[in-house]
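Renewal narrative, Specific Aim 1. Our central claim is that a sequence can be written position by position from structural information alone. The example that follows is taken directly from our test logs and has not been curated for this report. It begins with the structure tokens describing the chain, in the order in which they were read.
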């Protein structure tokens, strides 16, 4: 029997959720995703100090800290693309999450750096938070051929708005949804198919396939392999190295749980969200409101830490 990781790869694209190149080589994912927290963690490792130095040098002595961070994201991305055959996701500064125009401008800058290095748009996804402003920015970018990965996604309303905007890919956060429910109900047994994060992604996947949306669903932020096993068959799953290792070490049978054919017969009604309806749906969803805001805060804090690290390096 092949490993669970190999079985999963038969019907789901496996993506490495890390900034650590060694992990990518070990597990042979097709794509890789990064975020400010992962880049901060990797940049602080001695093995990657040279990439930080390169980013500072390439940006130039007069470059802003923001520009250096863009360079750092791209430097890491270029190294990742030497390892994975598919795409890398690079994230726009989370502090721009409520500014459509600034998000568009920053995404163009990041994509421009990749293109200058000879990387085509088909190999890069620009990660943007799933705020209304972020979704509208991504809609504009997609029309320019700059493909986007909408992250910090916790609700059906966010997913529907992304699909209507023709976004390339979304990253619903399975584990953070579970975290919220466990904090509210510590004694509940959220295991397997009863995991609220699994339920959320299954609903989104089924809706997309039922109504023929092209937006890809990439489950993210896993807390255990049980969540991954329940979402086998999802378009993509981005998985941390520790969980990839567990899947690689197991030879237990793994069966497909999500399937487009089954989704086609689901009894669902198609819905739509304009800005007012979207904002009301988010306001009505405490989980989505709290976890989206918390994620933006966390990523913003780590961006500031990256800026401090760069400032120290500059001297």
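The sequence written for that structure reads:
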């Amino acid at each position: 029997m092949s490993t669970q990781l190999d079985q999963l790869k038969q019907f789901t694209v496996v993506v490495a959720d890390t900034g650590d190149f060694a992990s990518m080589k070990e597990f042979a994912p097709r794509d890789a995703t990064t975020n400010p927290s992962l880049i901060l963690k990797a940049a602080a490792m001695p093995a990657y100090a040279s990439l930080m130095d390169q980013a500072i040098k390439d940006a130039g002595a007069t470059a802003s800290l923001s520009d250096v961070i863009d360079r750092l994201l791209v430097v890491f991305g270029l190294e990742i693309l030497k390892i994975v055959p598919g795409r890398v996701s690079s994230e726009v500064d989370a502090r721009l999450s409520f500014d459509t125009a600034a998000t568009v401008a920053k995404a163009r800058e990041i994509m421009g750096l990749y293109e200058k290095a000879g990387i085509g748009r088909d190999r890069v996804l620009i990660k943007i938070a799933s705020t209304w402003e972020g979704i509208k920015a991504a809609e504009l970018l997609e029309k320019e051929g700059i493909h986007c990965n909408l992250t910090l996604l916790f609700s059906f309303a966010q997913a529907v708005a992304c699909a209507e905007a023709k976004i390339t890919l979304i990253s619903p956060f399975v584990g953070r949804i579970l975290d919220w429910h466990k904090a509210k109900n510590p004694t509940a047994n959220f295991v397997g198919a009863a995991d609220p994060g699994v339920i959320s992604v299954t609903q989104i996947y089924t809706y997309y396939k039922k109504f023929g949306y092209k937006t890809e669903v990439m489950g993210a932020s896993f807390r255990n392999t049980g969540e991954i096993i329940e979402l086998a068959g999802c378009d993509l799953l981005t998985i941390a190295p520790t969980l990839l290792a567990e899947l690689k070490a197991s030879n237990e049978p793994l069966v497909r749980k999500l399937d487009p054919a089954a989704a086609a017969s689901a009894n669902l009604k198609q819905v739509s969200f304009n800005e007012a309806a979207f904002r009301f749906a988010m306001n009505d969803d405490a989980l989505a409101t709290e976890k989206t805001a918390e994620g933006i805060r966390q990523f913003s804090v780590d961006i500031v830490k990256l800026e401090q690290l760069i400032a120290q390096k500059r001297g």
